[in-house]
Amino acid sequence: MNLNQGKNKKIFLLRGQKRRILFSFLCNDKCDWNLQQLWIADWTPAEMEDVMVTDDRGDRKTDASGEIRPFGLRDKIGYMFGDFGNDFSFIFASNYLMVFYTKVLGLSGFVVGLLFLGARFVDAFTDVTMGRIVDYMRPAGDGRFRCWIRRMCVPVAVASSVMYLYFVRDWVYWAKLVYVIFTYLLWSSFCYTAINIPYGSMASVISPDVKDRASLSTFRSIGASLAGLVIGVLVPLIVYETDLEGNQVVRPVNFTVTAFVFGILAVGCYVLCYLLCQERVVFAKKEGKKESVWSMLAGLGKNRPLLALVCAALVLLLATLLSQTMNNYLFLDYFKNAKALSVVNVVGIGGTLLLAPFISVIVSRIGKKEAGAAGMLLAGVVYVILFFLQVKSILLFMVLFFLGTLGTGLFNLIIWAFITDIIDYQEIATGRREDGTVYAVYSFARKVGQALAGGLGGFVLTAIGYISEAPAQTWEVSRRIYMVATLVPGICYLAVFLIVQFAYPLTRGEVEKNTAILRNKRQEQAGEAGIQRDEKST
């Protein structure tokens, strides 16, 4: 068989009932891509699985036409919609599930806190297990990670929606508990895990380029911000109303309707993410005996950047979600203006969207670590100032709140790029590519932060004397709500600043060095694979 019959020649491999297209791209001195046809008639299935098909950036070159489109805006928009879909359930649950459980179902904050904390013990197994599955399971025809978005988009939407069935309030107490435990675990520990971990891991195979990954992180944060904007503005207007005595009360039926509408919107967002994103980076099949879980955890335990980011994420989510949860009670019982909560949510999202167009410039000039640390310092200082001022003016609160969100928004716009940098660091340190496992550990830390926020919120509400059945709280209880909503986030944001500044080691220079090492590694592996096939064909 002639190895140089021409460019853009497709070779179809029959394996089972699937046809696969294999290309090996070699770059000449002018960096033009030429296709070398390979003789593969006598390859074994294992040999075919080992092939790495990449260019000098690590990008895979294959699609139906033989020419894959380069990384671009389409991928960014698609990845943005992925987190948009995620947060139709995640942000909605983080902000309003506690309210639904306490105000609609009548559960105590202490019981809800125990549920949120207990679920994290389940997540300790399901998150890591899902990470291992996506790392070691044979990729589907549509990629290693995209296939999970296709499989799980409907189940996660259904699981999220059934958590908000208003008629459960009429059940006996033990039946309510069974319902709450089952539906929450189904969504959080299984369905959401099965789509979020592959989605988050997918960023490392959409492009290996540092700037591309930073842009994916930015667009992911924009997606989260847009979801937060929709939820933050519309939900207070839909689920709250004012009674005849001027108190803010919830509308149970509207919780259920809103949850199902969000579920449908989430599926649409996931479909767009699946259609618009493309996996480009292919890695060699993992050989030898599968690494044990304990050995894997021991290796991750030596990953200093991962440990630092896990600690930072845990504290960050605790602060952010506790603040979001307590803001509901803050505007209901302290400011006594639930409608203003919509405006405050717009102000909060506005800081992130304002920074988004400039994030690439900020990162390229000062680095991700450096920018993130500065953002957390700003947010911490602003929240501590809010605590000491004890403001009663909603307008003044909004102004200071906006300044704080500039800091948190800056960090959130780049935090997902930290993960891809850590995945690269792990590969250099251990020689193994473990996208899903690394992301699973980080995802678990985020869930712990979410649980601590919900659990601590429930415990704090009980401790300060909050009575969920009461139409209005005493002034002393309202004042304590304000203290928790400002001081705790302020302390936590300052703690994140210290972690990122002094414990996280991946400076801009280190990231650029790691990227160069892996680019050279991809080139060598692709070249070796091509040489081996050429030798075998002769």
TrEMBL record:
Single biological process term from Gene Ontology: sodium ion transport
Keywords in alphabetical order: Membrane, Transmembrane, Transmembrane helix, Transport
Major location (coarse): membrane
Location of this chain's protein in the cell: Cell membrane
GO cellular component, one term: plasma membrane
Residue intervals passing through the bilayer: 104-126, 147-167, 173-197, 218-239, 259-277, 306-323, 343-364, 371-389, 395-419, 451-468, 480-504
GO terms of molecular function: symporter activity
The keyword Transcription is assigned to this record: no
PROSITE patterns, A to Z: MFS
Superkingdom field: Bacteria
Domain Major facilitator superfamily (MFS) profile: 305-538
Membrane-topology annotation of the record: Multi-pass membrane protein
Pfam families documented for this protein: MFS_2 (PF13347)
Xref: InterPro entries: MFS_2 (IPR039672), MFS_dom (IPR020846), MFS_trans_sf (IPR036259), Na/Gal_symport (IPR001927)
Protein's recorded name: Putative symporter YjmB
